[in-house]
Write a structure and sequence with these properties.
By secondary structure, the protein is of the alpha/beta class. It has 11 helices and 15 strands. The protein has a 9-stranded mixed β-sheet with strand order 14-13-12-11-7-10-9-8-15. Strands 3-2-1-4-5-6 form a 6-stranded parallel β-sheet, with helices on both faces. It starts with a strand and ends with a helix.
Length: about 350
């Protein structure tokens, strides 16, 4: 497969990591060629140029100029969610496919609108739900999908991080937005839960809040209860203001209780408890069967960039293509709707309400 030409948009805090890690990995193995960088900050562009070894002529502060002057196969979008749609519109205008950071957009209305624009234009777009494609979560998914533990009954997911101080979460916009925990955190965790449930979410109820000690404008903590169309129940608890990061980023706790056993992921380790034919079988965490995790060259966004390139080259469509990812957006914005109005949200009706 020939290297695919990429315009990368956004070299902020996480965009820098894209340049030095995710893009570079795929440049080095010939999957992609970065042909242009876009950012409003010249210093950010200089950083991207340095780590990707690009000429100054490949750097732009205006995305429209970049897309107009540089031929590309797809773009990678790593700017705040409220700017996603503007970049997608430019990409569509120039016949360029899109691989974007989560969520699709900053509102449910915009998320649905973008999915429709992509469909109408005949373009490909996927969203980098990186946590679902990490080594530990992929191994857990493989176990659950294998059926060895039987049908899923309920799922618990816990995320706890000590990022209560100003700028502790890496970027100013997270400290000024209304729902940072849901939009910037739970977007990954609820997506993982839905993936393990194996069905669309039917209903959810959410509550969010901000403790006095959290230096944010919006809610840093939340609880979400979900029912899926196949009957699976799930509970999520998330906090970016805890005193100690017991289950910080990439260290989340996930428990999947099934018909024939339970799988627990905690701090990137997985153990399985299998039901035996004995009265009132008992055990405790730490005493289950330890699982050897899957191995492969790439995980998270390293892998998702490769998946996107393969999809564009005629391979299987990505699980996170934008039409599917509308469901992930609905979990977040539906939770905001529920928390704001104190009501149960029927998720599929909620999506349909945007036309």
């Amino acid at each position: 497969m020939a290297a695919q030409r990429v315009i990368h948009v956004g070299i902020g805090t996480f965009g820098k990591r894209w340049c030095r890690e995710f893009l570079k990995t795929n440049v080095d193995d010939g999957t992609i060629e970065v042909v242009a960088l876009v950012d409003v900050d010249p210093k950010a562009l200089a950083y991207g140029r340095s780590v990707l070894n690009l000429p100054e002529s490949a750097c732009f502060t205006d995305p429209r100029e970049a897309f107009g002057k540089v031929a590309a196969d797809f773009c990678t979008v790593v700017v705040p969610p409220n700017f996603h749609e503007a970049v997608v519109d430019i990409a569509i205008e120039h016949g360029v496919d899109v691989l974007s950071e989560k969520p699709i957009a900053d509102t449910m209305e915009a998320s649905v609108r973008i999915a429709r624009k992509i469909e109408a234009a005949g373009r490909k777009m996927a969203v980098t739900m990186s946590h679902r494609f990490d080594q530990d979560k992929t191994t857990l998914r493989r176990i659950i999908r294998s059926g060895r533990l039987g049908r899923v009954n309920n799922i618990s997911c816990r995320y706890q991080a000590d990022m209560r101080q100003h700028m502790a979460w890496g970027a100013l916009f997270r400290h000024t937005m209304q729902h940072p925990m849901l939009i910037e955190g739970a977007i990954h965790h609820l997506d993982i839960v839905a993936d393990l449930a194996g069905a669309r979410c039917e209903t959810l109820f959410a509550s969010t809040w901000k403790p006095d000690w959290a230096e944010y404008a919006g809610d840093t903590d939340g609880l979400v209860s979900m029912v899926f169309e196949n009957g699976v129940r799930a509970v999520y608890e998330g906090s970016s203001s805890t005193a100690v990061g017991l289950n910080d980023w990439y260290q989340e706790y996930v428990r999947v209780d099934c018909e024939l056993g339970t799988a627990i992921l905690n701090h990137r380790e997985i153990e399985i408890f299998t039901r035996q034919d004995v009265p009132r079988q008992k055990s405790r965490e730490g005493q289950g069967q330890k699982v050897t995790q899957l191995t492969q060259p790439k995980w998270i966004n390293h892998w998702l960039i490769e998946q996107f390139a393969q999809w564009r080259a005629g391979g299987p469509a990505m699980e996170t293509r934008v039409q599917n990812n509308v469901q992930a957006s609905a979990l977040i914005f539906g939770s905001i709707e529920s928390a704001t109005h104190g009501k149960l949200v029927k998720v599929q009706d909620y999506i349909a309400s945007f036309g």
